[in-house]
């Protein structure tokens, strides 16, 4: 990813996602030592990315650990590596010290992959579908976060959750993240809205914690709203917004 030096103030998202080249990252490291705004924005992007990762993380099933431990006992280890007479003793010892841990690590990885393969075979199409959906979601969110014109806004809902909106005019997309949002309760869901000159249009749903790409067209919207609605959502808000967060310009 190439950027002009004058665009340093726009690189916070790419920096937080590790999308800068080595030279650009060094330049931005130097820049944020003297720019409080960019330093704070980069930290906020990193926090947003961390919440995203936590939201899509899938814990392995309990059976995987037992399968790995059982497989390790049956994995044949490599024999010791004996240097030839022409090998220098110091070099031979160094290679052995490096080769044996690597061989053991390879054996453990092979055993783990075997256990995971068994689990994957059992879950089959459901697992593949979940993986595709998670990857698509990550791609969509990352595209917005890494956009050169990405801008952020932060707020707190009436029930105490910390929220972030990241918007890109170039991508014509916006991402909403919530942390610490209480469970909505039985028969309820959190619904997102785009405020178009006072008209609230549905923009998707969010779990009690998570990150989503807003549906609809944020280009003409002035703010993002969040309300508590009946399960399945509503065509228009039925409760007062828990937050109405202005979209970053």
Approximately how much beta-strand content do the residues carry? 15-25%
Count the E strands.
8
- The value of Rg in angstroms is 25 Å
The SS-based structural class is: alpha+beta
The parts where pLDDT drops under 50 for at least 5 residues are 1-6, 86-113
The number of domains is 3
Q: Reading side by side through the largest sheet, how are the strands ordered?
A: 1-2-3-6
Distance between the termini: 23 Å
Let me know the average pLDDT.
75
Query: N-to-C SSE series?
Result: HHHHHHEEEEEEEE
Q: Count of DSSP helices? A: 6
For the sheet with most strands, the description reads: 4 strands, antiparallel
Helical residues, percent: 40-55%
Q: How does the overall form come out from the CA principal axes?
A: globular
Would you mind describing this structure in some detail?
The chain is an alpha+beta fold and 249 residues long. It contains 6 helices and 8 strands. The strands form 2 sheets. The protein has a 4-stranded antiparallel β-sheet, with helices on one face. Strand 1 and strand 2 (162-168) form a beta hairpin. 22% of the residues are buried.
Keywords:
249 residues, 6 helices, four-stranded antiparallel β-sheet, disordered N terminus, alpha+beta, 3 domains, Arc Repressor Mutant, subunit A
Summarize the structure.
The chain is of the alpha+beta class and 249 residues long.
Topology, element by element:
Elements: H1 12-16, H2 22-32, H3 36-56, H4 62-73, H5 89-123, H6 125-145, E1 151-156, E2 162-168, E3 173-179, E4 188-196, E5 199-206, E6 210-213, E7 223-230, E8 243-246
Antiparallel strand pairs: 1-2, 2-3, 3-6, 4-5, 4-7, 7-8
């Amino acid at each position: 990813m190439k950027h002009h030096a004058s665009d340093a103030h726009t690189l916070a998202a790419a920096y937080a996602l590790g999308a800068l080249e080595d030279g650009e990252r060094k330049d931005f490291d130097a820049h944020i030592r003297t720019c409080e705004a960019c330093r704070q924005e980069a930290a906020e992007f990193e926090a947003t990315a961390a919440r995203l990762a936590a939201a899509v993380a899938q814990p392995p099933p309990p059976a995987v650990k037992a399968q790995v431990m059982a497989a390790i006992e049956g994995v044949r280890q490599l024999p010791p590596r004996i240097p030839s007479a022409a090998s220098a003793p110091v070099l031979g010892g160094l290679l052995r010290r490096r080769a044996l841990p690597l061989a053991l690590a390879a054996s453990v990885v092979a055993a783990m992959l075997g256990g995971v393969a068994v689990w994957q075979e059992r879950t089959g199409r459901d697992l593949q579908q979940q993986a595709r959906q998670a990857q698509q979601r990550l791609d969509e969110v990352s595209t917005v976060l890494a956009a050169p014109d990405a801008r952020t806004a932060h707020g707190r809902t009436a029930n105490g959750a910390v929220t972030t909106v990241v918007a890109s005019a170039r991508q014509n997309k916006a991402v909403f993240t919530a942390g610490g949002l209480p469970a909505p309760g039985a028969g309820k869901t959190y619904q997102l809205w785009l405020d178009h000159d006072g008209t609230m249009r549905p923009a998707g749903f969010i779990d009690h914690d998570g990150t989503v790409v807003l549906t609809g067209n944020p280009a003409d919207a002035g703010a993002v709203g969040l309300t508590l609605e009946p399960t399945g959502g509503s065509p228009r808000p039925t409760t007062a917004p828990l937050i109405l967060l202005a979209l970053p310009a």
